[in-house]
Amino acid sequence: MRKFIAICSLLFPAVLAAQTAAPALKLPRVSQHMVTTATVGLTDITVDYSRPAVKGRAIWGGLVPYDQVWRTGANEATQISFSDDVTINGQPLPKGTYSLHTIPGKDSWTIIFNKTAKQWGSFNYKQADDALRVTTKPEKAPFHELMTIEFPQVTNDAATVAIRWENVSVPFTVGTNTTAKVMADANAAVAGAAATDFQTPMRAASFAFDAGNTAQAATWVDQSLKVKQTMGNLYLKARIQAKNGDKAGAIATGESALKLAGPNDKELAGEIQSSINDWKK
């Protein structure tokens, strides 16, 4: 019994010390963590990376050697994901998440999309796991203390992704082919629309018009008008007519749209009247 008490007396302080031990110390990363997402048409692109700082160091050919695989940031290898199939500088890449490695050069960079998404740095990088490699040209750029990956240009069908650090910017283009996909979907939706549905062909016509396909827009807006005439589809018809050079027809159709204006349509009515005034000039 005395032996048991003695053992307990030795263990109790250790247990108490363990229970009162200070919590694990968390420190901020030296290189900031950043997640950037852009929607290009209907495709989400997400970049997950860490941002090293220049701190007065020589970066290119120094801290980051030329002609060697680089993690494109700090800590874990940068990850990039695409919600749909895309093209990179015109080359196809299936949707998914990839680690983004690069091989910097003085006159040319290699951009690498590797199938092993989660890696620490590029230490275990295997070229055999590459999904795609493309080359691009580095450009002189305003000084960036922190490495940044951004989207300086975005349209429905493409985005420029730029890796920027120190005084260098390295761009590549992500293509999404959104317009062609939506036009195909719109064609199917209009074909399957109910006989009383004027909104689906009108929405399809509006997209086609904004995409520059006025011929298809005219066909779809006429289908909408056959079901029901509204300020919206009449005004769209007028803009299509004006785009095709038929200013007289546009004015007449615009004036027909104004006749349908209600007390809550002042803003749209003002826009239509402004367009009519421009077409009359």
Structural overview:
It is elongated, with a radius of gyration of 30 Å. The protein has seven helices and ten strands. It has two domains: 144 residues, no CATH class; 103 residues, Serine Threonine Protein Phosphatase 5, Tetratricopeptide repeat. With 281 residues, it is α+β, with helices and mostly antiparallel strands. About 2% of the residues have low confidence. A six-stranded antiparallel sheet has the order 1-2-3-6-7-8, with no helix packed on it. A four-stranded antiparallel sheet has the order 5-4-10-9, with no helix packed on it.
* Overall number of strands: 10
User: What's the average pLDDT?
Assistant: 93
Number of helices: 7
Helix content: 25-40%
Total separate domains = 2
Tell the overall outline: elongated
Taking pLDDT < 50 over at least 5 consecutive residues as the criterion, the unreliable ranges are: 4-8
Helix and strand element order: HEEEEEEEEEEHHHHHH
Portion of residues in beta strands equals: 25-35%
Q: How many angstroms separate the termini?
A: 109 Å
Describe the biggest sheet? 6 strands, antiparallel
Radius of gyration (CA) equals 30 Å
- Summing up helix and strand content along with how strands pair, one would put the structural category as alpha+beta
- Order of strands, main sheet, comes to 1-2-3-6-7-8
